[in-house]
Amino acid sequence: MTTRPDAPALAVDSHYELDYRVAGSDSPRTLCSEPGDDFPDVLATARMVGLMELAAARLMRPLLGDGELSVGVGVDVTHLAATPLFETVRARATFLGMEGKLYAFRVELFDAGGKVGEGRHTRAIVATERLLKSTEKRLQAAREARA
Questions:
Q1: Nearest CA among 73, 86, 75, 94 for reference residue 25
Q2: Mean pLDDT of the chain, nearest integer
Q3: Is 17 among the residues known to form the active site?
Q4: What domains, with CATH codes, occur in the chain?
Q5: Which of these, 50, 61, 87, 125, is most buried using a 10 Å CB contact count?
Q6: How many alpha carbons fall within 13 Å on the CB side of residue 131?
Q7: Of the ranges 7-21, 36-50, 59-73, 130-144, which one carries the lowest mean pLDDT score?
């Protein structure tokens, strides 16, 4: 994880919100691949988590230097209510503070009916090149294991 002494600070309780219109591709039904798979046409939990992560990542943008990005490290969320397809949701990430080198967030998702999901999310700042090298090593190890 990258730590720059000259990096700007993120104020506790600062937040970022984004609006998103739920599409058909956001349904868990798109994951059905075997007979018997049955999921409703609503916003998938995985997409909800992705929107929460995106809000936190955007809040961290000013902290990133050249060649850096933020990555999700931990997620602990509860999906409270179903959102129908084609409705608009709002994801909100609120900075809680640092946990060592990790940035901790309260994350929430709302639709017109109220709160849809809530939880905690942590992110880290990493060097892009280092992350890509690590990924390539994992791919190479997987290729060698299959050979």
A1: 86
A2: 94
A3: no
A4: 15-146 (3.10.129.10)
A5: 125
A6: 13
A7: 130-144
Integer Rg of the chain from CA: 18
Nearest Cα neighbor of 77 from 103, 105, 57 is 105
Q: Would you call 3 a catalytic residue per the annotation? A: no
The single residue of 79, 83, 94, 122 carrying the catalytic annotation is 79
Q: Is the pLDDT of residue 16 over 60?
A: yes
Q: Quick check: 3 pLDDT over 70?
A: no
What's the CA gap between 54 and 93, in Å, rounded?
9
Catalytic residue among 2, 3, 30, 53: 53
* Conformational region of residue 54, where left means phi above 0, alpha means psi within -120 to 50, and beta covers everything else: alpha
Is 45 an active-site residue? Answer: yes
